[in-house]
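Blinded run. Sample ID left blank on purpose so nobody reads anything into the name before looking at the predicted structure. Input follows.
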Amino acid sequence: MKNIIMLFFLFTNSFLFSQSTDGKIVYSIHISADERVLKSEKMGKLYMDMSKNAADRMYVLSFKEGKTSFLKAEKLNAAEDKYEVTVSKLASVMFTTDDNYYYDFVNRYAIIETNGTLIKEAVKDVNWEMTSENKIISGILCYKATRQLEYLGRDNKIKINNIVAWFAPSLPYSYGPKDFYGLPGLIVQLTENRTTYLANKIELDDVEISIDFPKGKMVSKEEFDKKLKAQMGM
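Blinded prediction complete.
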């Protein structure tokens, strides 16, 4: 089954990215909190509030003619209390994101908007480990795929981020949350560390989609990473 999925992916990859159907996917957030931290006298309450803040969020993936955007849905009642603002910022760092992601899969570039900075980078080929393991999510047959991403920790050591995605071949759109893409079907569920993005609303065809890429001065991913490392004293 794994080989069948891989062949399907190889022959349909370019087709998936060129789909003309408009779509809007709303993802809810589920947090698998660390019980040891929750019981900590020092960090317990803050950690619990961060978990609740993250779990209360919704994100919207929109796609149209090979372009996508992934944005946080605005709350009707935004936090104004200083503590709530701090909790929200920390929750973004720990569990989710405040970044906006824009992809143009036709021209193969992406723009990531983070704290007012626009980062432009090329769309890269992605290596997923696809399996025959499957399950039904919201009535949709999905298959499991995994990735291991290396990143440089604050201790200046290389660490591994394990990603688990469940994609639906019946929804032939090679998109997903944040900067995760490249599977032969929509990513319906994705787990990154203790955070799970779950598609709970899928709208196709009869939706009006407008994807407006941000404009302004941009930096390369290499430039941004170099500056970030310098700020972290690396």
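Unblinding after everyone has recorded impressions. The helical segments are 2-17, 35-38, 44-55, 82-94, 221-231.
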